[in-house]
Design goal:
Number of domains of chain A: 1
CATH class of chain A: Mainly Alpha
Number of strands of chain A: 0
Largest interface: A-B, 21 and 21 residues
Shape of chain A: globular
Oligomer: homodimer
CATH topology of chain A: Cytochrome Bc1 Complex, Chain D, domain 2
Radius of gyration of chain A: 12 Å
Strand content of chain A: under 5%
CATH superfamily of chain A: Cytochrome c-like domain
Number of helices of chain A: 5
Structural class of chain A: mainly alpha
Amino acid sequence: TGDKKNGRTLVYTCNGCHGVPGTNNAYPQYPVPKIAGQNEQYLISALHEYKAGDRTHPTMMAQAQSLSDQEIEDIAAYLSSIAPK
Amino acid sequence: TGDKKNGRTLVYTCNGCHGVPGTNNAYPQYPVPKIAGQNEQYLISALHEYKAGDRTHPTMMAQAQSLSDQEIEDIAAYLSSIAPK
């Protein structure tokens, strides 16, 4: 089970591009998905796919490879618990 | 440019799994992402990746392959215009 409190700390890194919980996406014309309020299991699945290289995006692969399975669960628990925006 | 009105018609197919604009996701424990209010360019990019087979998911590949580039833009225009939920 994910630890929301630790997830909240970990998503600091995500904010630069995903803008959570900031005001706006840093790249409004670039396809950066909104992740606040996203489905928890989808977030876990997506991060594992990036980590394994099954889903390819250089930045996200590097980020996911730096995360443990527990940290992925923590991030997903936090992001899925906050309101979509 | 996407045609929101046509997109609204096209997303009828998406509702079964993604639950837009229905009440709940059909598979709460399965990793189906929320797509209402998602970033327009991300939606276009994701559908093209599924269509090209660069992003793999049997159902989504089949769906995307049935869509024209214009229809993908229409869907993205509609989904990005509605409130996240």
